[in-house]
Design goal:
By secondary structure, this protein is mainly α. It contains five helices and no strands. The chain is elongated and about 65 Å long.
Length: 202
């Protein structure tokens, strides 16, 4: 292995450690966010069961919140495993799932920003949990805007780190393949079968 390739591989190993650590932190934040959303959905389940049990299966907002929290937790688990193993099998689904989350959030934010009557686009929630949530968000709009921006930033960072980790892994493998080709080219006789020098010796 040439000294330049050794230096490059050493630098890439250091970069891998930094990216892995950052990706673990990002997925920890996403997991905490998912758990918080799930706890909120569990609280809504308790409230609905205590007050209006008949709306338990009819509340679309309840199940949408539960599904969102589950997706956050599932994505963060895949991302953590991808950060530990650096395996393409986990990196690719993580990038796809977090990209879908980002795209969905961009569409929702765009609809809310451009449409003054965005709440009419959603179906009526018979349990009125959605209306209570909207009122709570409007009363604490600054805090929710900051939280939404931070979560969005964390997701974009996680997607970028996963792409960088996959790129670094691919480049390190290409350098190793180049070194193997150089070794085989420098020792051409190793690739040949050398027969016996004496043709009469079996």
């Amino acid at each position: 292995m040439s000294p330049s390739n050794k230096t490059i591989i050493t630098m890439e190993r250091s970069a891998k450690r930094i990216i892995k650590t950052a990706l673990k932190i990002v997925n920890l934040i996403l997991c905490i966010t998912g758990i918080a959303i799930l706890l909120y959905s569990v609280w809504m389940i308790v409230v609905i069961l205590m007050k209006d049990r008949k709306y338990f299966f009819l509340s679309w907002f309840l199940w949408a919140t539960f599904a969102t929290g589950t997706m956050f937790c599932f994505t963060s688990c895949i991302g953590y495993v991808a950060a530990v193993t650096r395996c393409r099998i986990f990196l690719t689904p993580y990038i796809v799932s977090i990209s879908l989350l980002i795209l969905m959030e961009i569409l929702i934010i765009g609809d809310i920003s451009l449409n003054n009557k965005w709440d009419r686009d959603f179906p009526k929630d018979p349990s009125h949990r959605f209306d209570d949530f909207v009122d709570f968000v409007e009363d604490n709009s600054c805090i929710f805007k900051l939280l939404a921006f931070l979560i969005f930033l964390v997701q974009v960072t996680g997607c970028g780190l996963a792409m960088a980790l996959r790129l670094v892994r691919a480049r390190a493998r290409s350098y190793l393949d180049d070194d193997a080709n150089q070794v085989s080219a420098g020792l051409p006789f190793l690739a040949r079968d050398i027969g016996p020098t004496n043709p009469y010796v079996m």
